[in-house]
Sequence to fold (167 residues):
Amino acid sequence: MTILLRTVHGSRLYGLHHADSDYDWFEVHGWDKSRSKQKITGDQDTVRTSLDSFLWNCNRGVPQFLEAMFSQQCTVNEIPFITEAYRPAIDATRITYRRTIKKLWLKGVEENNVKFKRHAVRMHFNLEDMQGTGRFNPTLNDFDKQLVHVLADMEDAFGFDKIEDSV
Fold:
């Protein structure tokens, strides 16, 4: 099946990878109404999805799908007419992001795991950009990388534990 979009994903997309990080990829294939599938081979972790599933999940505001949509690190992009013009449904996206941010932050606090808290902070930055421009760049700049680390070490950065699940 033809690859329509292929991008680096995960920590390498965000710019938060380290020497032991695996290689995450996100691929969009043709229209076949299939669910997304994940395949892990060695240090390669690839999520494959169909175009219809990709667009459906983007419209619901699912973070991983929007990160792929807005990636500036695509190795294949046969659908630039979609990726360059796409703007998510902001209300649905805001709800999904706030719910996910809250869950990640609370899980990070509960498990004393800074990785979850970093993801919550990073997603908060993405949501702020998206609310302002309708888009975001999932790759953090150097300043934002430092800020993600600092805020993730805080007990209650931005009051994430108080974020409402709704608009």
Observations:
- The radius of gyration is 16 Å.
